[in-house]
Amino acid sequence: MAAEEKSENKVTVEISFESVKASVWYRLGLSFKDRCENFCRGTKLRKEGRAPYLHILNWLAQSGNWTLPLRDAIRSHTELRGSVTQVVEKGFLKALIDSNEEIRSVLHFDSNSDQLTIEDPQFLFYIRNIPWRQFAKNIGFISVDFANRYDFALSFAGTDRDVAEALFNLISEKVG
Which is deepest, 79, 88, 137, 155, by most CB within 10 Å? Predict the structure, then answer.
């Protein structure tokens, strides 16, 4: 069916978008979970450490782009400047990626521009949907935390959109 065509048959879908998204993310995890964990551990897991590789992958996921300019990211995250700068400038990040074919198939690091780029759109979807707090804990990091993306979430039926919007506006006024 071409983009401008319209189907005459309406289909009611009984499964939510969130369920489909979770199912897709789970299936992609069969390919990408171990790669992400191996990348985030770096060459040696330091449970009490600052987890520079974990934060780099998180920044990439949050960036909105397929490429993360690490110099800019480091300037934006001063609390991690030392540990991330060290893995970049001493060549540890490049060595980690170059030494692991699984990681190299999804990430590329250009040491001349200090840019980390995603090579696979499915990997991008996977990392953008990682529950980062739980992921860090599962890997073994004990002192790493991530801020919640949202303070509140509203769930509503499409017919209740006006009510949800009014509630959102009231909460925003009180919080903001």
Answer: 88
